[in-house]
Design brief:
elongated, 3 helices, mainly alpha, Holin, about 70 residues, about 90% helix, membrane
Length: about 70
């Protein structure tokens, strides 16, 4: 499994460096900015998902939902 993952990463890195080598400095900056934005969006999504799961298990939140259902 690990060898397969390392092989996949090697192909990905080779493709990335091949594409970046054909770009100018400005184009490389745009690619890096897009990658950083996507990375930030994924990290924010993961943290919000984790927070919502933690809140769902909190007793006070369950009590509030139960009160809303009763009304």
């Amino acid at each position: 499994m690990r060898e397969k993952m390392i092989g996949w990463f090697a192909y990905l890195w080779a493709g990335f460096t091949g594409v970046v080598s054909g770009l100018s400095i400005n184009e490389t900056g745009v690619v890096v900015s897009i990658a950083a934005t996507l990375f930030t969006a994924v990290i924010n999504w993961l943290y919000r998902r984790r927070m919502l799961k933690a809140l769902q298990n909190h007793p006070d939140v369950r009590k509030a939902y139960k009160q809303m259902e009763d009304d």
